[in-house]
Amino acid sequence: MAEPVKRSFVAPIVAVLTSPIVVVGSVLAISMFFLSSYQQNTNIQLRELAKVIADLNKGQSRILTTHKELLEAVSELEGKVKYQRNRLKAVDAFTKEKNVVVSGVLEKDGENLESEIRSLLSKRLSLIFGDLDLELVRRFGRKVSVKPGGDAARRIIVRFANYLDKVRVLKSATKLNGTNYSVSDDTRRLLTNSKA
Q1: How far from 26 is each of 15, 17, 32, 100, 139, CA to CA, in Å?
Q2: Backbone angles phi, psi at 182, to 5 degrees
Q3: Which of 17, 36, 160, 186 is deepest in the core (most CB within 10 A)?
Q4: Neighbours of 118 (CB within 10 A)
Q5: Dihedral over alpha carbons 64, 68, 70, 72 (to 10 degrees)
Q6: What is the reported pTM?
């Protein structure tokens, strides 16, 4: 009798391992392992990204708070600037309250303006002023022609010690009509670039 063929125990194992169900299961198990590993890496990156976003939100919150504080400070400064501008306008008006502007007095080297103004006021307007009645006499601005094609002279600002003296001069100023001289109220804008 012939000897029975020994079956190898490897064949059933190979058969089981090569069966479609085992192969698909193995592929799925390997895929799940890689997917699980990839998912863990993705979760780590998402947590890091969430931290970055939280930090950005905190930074944005600080920026918004600072922006709000800056807007409030700017608003406060605008109020102070407006207040100071109004104060300057009041000082400007007060400063010019006793001033007149005299035009037409020719400029000379070494001139004594106060003496020339006193002479003009007494001779042309018949007004006499004491030594302390004139607080300020000085030229200002650009030279302006006294008459067409003639000499040029800068205007003169005259500040009186007393407001009533200014009023007397302005009332008498019509006596200068027809001459090269004129006297007017001080309407200069001392505050340039002022926004009302």
Answers
A1: 14, 9, 10, 108, 106
A2: -150, 150
A3: 160
A4: 20
A5: 180
A6: 0.54
